[in-house]
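Throughout our pipeline, every protein is held as a single compact record rather than as scattered files. The remainder of this section carries one protein's record, kept here as part of the documentation.

===
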Amino acid sequence: MPTTNNITLRPRFKMELKEQNETVLNAFNESKKAQSDFIINRVDDHVFIRFPKHKQHFWSPQLHLEINVIDSETSMLHGLFGPNPTVWTMFMFLHFFVAGLFIAFGIWTYSNWTLENPFGLQLGLMLLMVAAWFGLYLAGRFGKHKGKDEMHQLYDFMNITLKTNNID
């Protein structure tokens, strides 16, 4: 599972499989029944693999797989690691909120500057928003680091499922 970009918060990968996509999807359906270490959900060509609630923590990742048809004998597997969708939505909301406040404080700063009024407070608030953004970024990096072992477990489970069902 090499990631070429260390800044990536949601690592992605893809691999070509020499099997039809239905065969691959059925392999995950079978593994769903054969084990209890992971929760596997399938929706159309998408498979979601995550840990059971009692093994999860706030930063627990999940693996989203999309298996697309290339032709009658091959398929393409696209994988995406990410946090729980609720956590990701909250993180994105906070990022947009901080960005919105930064823009609002920037407008306020510019208005006071053009009116030749003091604008130190507004400039300070803009810098505070930059610091908040860096804080959110560092929190995301911390979460990725905290979930790294679990990402490897999910990736290994995916590979075992594919190999157990003779899918290359």
User: Anything to note?
Assistant: The helical segments are 21-34, 85-114, 120-146, 148-164. The mean pLDDT is 89. The two ends are 15 Å apart (CA to CA).
